[in-house]
Write a structure and sequence with these properties.
single chain; about 110 residues; mainly alpha; Arc Repressor Mutant, subunit A; 2 domains; 6 helices; about 80% helix
Length: about 110
């Protein structure tokens, strides 16, 4: 697996976590098996008795769909911002002024 494939897989796992409730059962199954459980397209096709191409098309379309949800809703983007700010708070816990600044930024994310 290349570095780009790994990054995409990690991103898709997060997007799946945030948006799976908005997907159909089939979409959830395909993404879960492909990205979370590392099934091959052929293994998924055999499981659901469909063609490998059908699985590929569904995974690609569903990936585009969750990316569209992320563009519109930004749940993963806000999660990443919060995580970065929490890390900054931990690193600068001895500086009250900086910590308060980071807390203010955290509050602004949800506004």
């Amino acid at each position: 697996m290349t570095q780009n494939d790994l990054i995409k897989t990690i991103r898709m796992n997060y997007l799946f976590d945030f948006y799976q409730a908005l997907l159909t059962e089939k979409q959830r199954n395909y993404l879960q098996m492909f990205y979370l459980e590392d099934y091959s397209l052929s293994e998924i096709a055999d499981t659901f008795n469909v063609s490998r191409q059908a699985v590929y098309d569904n995974i690609r379309r569903t990936g585009d769909l969750v990316e569209d949800y992320e563009t519109k809703l930004g749940l993963y983007r806000n999660f990443e911002k919060r995580k970065d700010l929490y890390d900054q708070i931990k690193q600068h816990s001895d500086n009250a002024e900086r910590v308060l600044s980071y807390i203010k930024q955290l509050e602004e994310i949800d506004e």
